[in-house]
Design a protein that fits this description.
211 residues, alpha/beta, Lysozyme-like, 23% strand, globular
């Protein structure tokens, strides 16, 4: 079996996800749009009745916080597509801890999250043409990208999920919505979402999975 990243188990009640086993065909990459650490997202999901959750939250240092086993499922796509329930059931979701889209305060000359948190310049990536309404994003760390890589390889082997790079994952993809097996981004399913963003290091990792 493939090597797993460092994983810490969180006490996540069974009533907050669906302890039902479905064939896994897709892996969907998200980011949290929140501050450092899995604690805030974990506590939020503990208090939501809709059973919205992902199997893993990948923290900035690469540690994976596991809420439930990947063979089970929770709602994570937030779509109204006729195929939505099946897509949630047949996919594994990963959250990467990140503020996501940022704005630049031209007066204070700092990068800000939507909550007003300052993100250091060295942690920011700029997309000259913008991406999903933002020009600046918090970078995914090398440790996060490596942990995601290990999870993808492990789950591909465990569930026979293809690792081929889907170049259409960065926009709405009919293939993703139709349930085509493989690795996708939340952006593949919902136009309002900007997770994950196409950081070159992330793309290089995804393209290298089959090498």
């Amino acid at each position: 079996m493939q090597e797993l990243p460092k994983i810490k188990m969180l006490a996540f009640p069974e009533g907050q996800f669906f302890k039902e086993i479905f064939n896994k065909e897709q892996i969907v990459l998200h980011h949290t749009a929140s501050g450092r650490g899995s604690d805030g997202d974990y506590k939020h999901w503990l208090n939501t009745p809709e059973r919205i959750a992902t199997s893993q939250i990948v923290e900035h240092d690469g540690t994976c916080a596991q809420l439930f086993n990947s063979k089970y499922w929770g709602y994570h796509l937030g779509i109204t597509h006729p195929n939505s329930k099946r897509l949630n059931q047949n996919s594994i979701a990963i959250e990467i801890d990140s503020w996501g889209g940022l704005t630049y305060d031209t007066v204070k000359k700092v990068f800000l999250s939507y909550t007003g948190a300052v993100v250091p310049k060295e942690n920011v990536i700029e997309y000259e043409k913008g991406f999903r309404g933002y020009r600046f994003f918090e970078r995914y760390t090398a440790e996060q990208i490596e942990s995601v890589r290990k999870l993808l390889l492990f789950w591909s082997e465990a569930y026979d999920i293809p690792l081929d790079y889907n170049a259409d994952m960065w926009d709405i993809s009919q293939r993703a919505l139709e349930g085509t097996p493989g690795i996708w981004s939340h952006t593949s399913y919902k136009k309002e979402k900007s997770d994950i963003h196409p950081q070159p290091e992330m793309i290089a990792m995804l393209q290298g999975l089959t090498n």
